[in-house]
Amino acid sequence: MGDMANLFGTGRFAQPSGQPSDREEAADEAQEAADEAAEEVRLRLAVDGGDVEAMSVLGALLLRRGDFDGAESHLRAATAAGDRAAANNLGVLLHQRGYADEAAGWWRIAAVAGSAAAAHALGRHFRERGDEPAAEYWLCQSAEQGHVLGAYALADLLEHRGDGTGSARWMRVAAEHGHREAAYRLARTLDRRAGRRDGGDDKAAALAADEAEQWYRQAAARGHRRGALHLGTILEKRGELKEAGRWYLTSAKDGEARAACALGFLLRDAGDTESAAVWWLRAAQDGDGNAANALGALHAERGETQTAERWYRAAMDAGDDNGAYNLGLLCAEQGRTTQAEQWYRRAAYAGHREASNALAILLLRAGDEAGAEPWFSKAAEAGSVDAAFNLGILHAGRSEERAALRWYERAAAAGHTEAALQVGMARLRGGDEREAERFLRCAAGGGSAEAAYRLATVLDARRPPAPAHELGEPAQEKSECEEWYERAASQGHRRAQVRVGMLAAARGDVVEAARWYRQAAEAGSRNGAFNLGLLLAREGSEPEAVVWWRRAADAGHGRAALRLALVFARRGELAEGQRWADLAVSLGPAEVGERAARLRDALRQELSA
Questions:
Q1: How large is the greatest C-alpha to C-alpha distance in the chain, in angstroms?
Q2: Once rounded to an integer, what is the mean pLDDT over residues 256-279?
Q3: CA 417, CA 412: separation in Å to the nearest integer?
């Protein structure tokens, strides 16, 4: 995080020093123009003297300048004198003027004379005409003479024809000689190869990925904006955020909307939301739906719902289904249920799985279970873990336990904590304790307090009874089941809190036991209140114990009511004692009810005596 803060603290990426100023660039351009004018004068004097090479060079200079009329006469004269470079350039000039067939004739003359550039141009000409055999012949001539453009064009032709081996060979040749598009395409090929590898050939996949990165780097260094984007993505995944940001910036400045969007996310993650918004805006204006969604979310967080909606619509118009889904979420948060359903449906019909799940939930809440189920199924089949879990709940509500378990298992396999808990509980009901333990461990590890408690009960039932704790003896180490009880208790699970209190009391740790009982009681646990009362009574704090027993009895705890009846009977408050005894009889359980009935009858006789 320190590197990120240093990098993004000002909202700008460091630019290389030593760049020329506008004034220096203007001076350089003026000097170049003067040098070119002097060179043209020298060439014209040489042409007047009959220098064929000067004719060819002057013709090429005028061609680059766009002076076709001036160039043509010099190129024709040089070509007539046998200059093959002039023949090639004459072909270029004629091609630009629209005389493709005549241009091809001059290119053929130059190519036969050994011009690699002319052979490349002739190959391109035949490919445009659909004559691929002729195109391959001339492009091969050009490539074998070391012409970079010829090698690239040949690779492209072979790739089009499905010759992957030949294409890769010439693409590599072109890339090695500095062709940036060839370097990028070679990197993409290696990237795909690395992605197709399975676990059986991890080493080859890693080598392909490493080589792909090197070619992306070469393409990016030569100004290829998509190469810079992919290089940034690789570096970001590896955690090298500073360098990733630089390449994203380079690519974004060259007009790559996806790089501008990615740069925005980097800046946001570094805490520079304002700079992130600038780049998202730039990307969104260039048609990037992901950036438009990001802008929508940013404005939604600020409470600017109208602006958020505008950007979500822009994302949708750019073909990003998340735009419709986010519009649905926005409408749902505002209570605009009809509009939310409309946008969810639009995204769901386009295949957006989370929109399908959200639509199903909306329909289910409206009481349309029949309409909800197909959308849950569609989302689950598309890979939505939440939808699979929701299908489990749906089937469980109909008592279709087998179908419910199937969907719970599917969601649990994808890491859904609550689904794993449901599978664990189903396995417990079926008597498969080992499988139950496996799923409960997954759910408990995922943060489920209920799973941690149930796992603890499974482990608790297996362990041998602990020996009685004697005063002065060191307390025994906590077992695994107690650790799980404590994890559940620390997450607020009331039964776990009571159980941890009981285990602490068994170890003789009264303070710890009282702490857990109190937490459970204050959270509404009647057992926690009852046990806390017992602990306080044993410690001689009967008045406070009565407070907690009263709370437990009022919540329906029969034993607490019986304890209160006994306390008030001892105090001589017979009517109050009888009232609590009556309550204990009604609350039970059976043995408590029997004792409370005997006490009640005795108090009644005492009162009537």
A1: 150
A2: 96
A3: 7
Q: Record the tokens describing residue 607, joined without a space.
A: 């009162």
* Nearest-angstrom CA–CA distance, 88 and 110: 6
Instruction: Please name the amino acid found at residue 270.
Output: A
pTM for this entry: 0.72
Report CA Rg, the chain. Answer: 41
DSSP string across 475-508: PPPPPHHHHHHHHHHHTT-HHHHHHHHHHHHHTT
**Backbone dihedral region for residue 524 (phi beyond 0: left; psi -120 to 50: alpha; all else: beta):** left
Residue 262 and residue 229: Cα distance in Å, rounded? 9
CA distance 291 to 493: 42
**Cβ contact 440:451 at 8 Å:** yes
DSSP string, 35-87: HHHHHHHHHHHHHHTT-HHHHHHHHHHHHHHT-HHHHHHHHHHHHHTT-HHHH
Of 382, 380, 412, 413, give the one whose Cα is nearest residue 394: 380
Residue 333 to residue 347: CA distance in whole angstroms: 17
Handedness of CA 150, 151, 157, 160 (dihedral sign): negative
Q: Express each pLDDT in 24-81 by its tens digit.
A: 666 666 777 777 778 777 887 887 778 888 888 887 888 888 888 888 888 888 888 8
Strand extents, DSSP E, 322-462 = none
Q: What is the DSSP letter of 10?
A: T
Residues 6+ apart with CB under 8 A from 463: 479, 481
CA distance 76 to 236: 55
Q: Residue 48: what pLDDT?
A: 75
DSSP secondary structure letter of residue 200: G
Tokens of 98: 């629209």
Q: Which two tokens stand for residue 33?
A: 């123009």
Of 288, 208, 209, 206, nearest in space to 248 by CA:
288
For residue 549 the two structure tokens come to: 């027993």
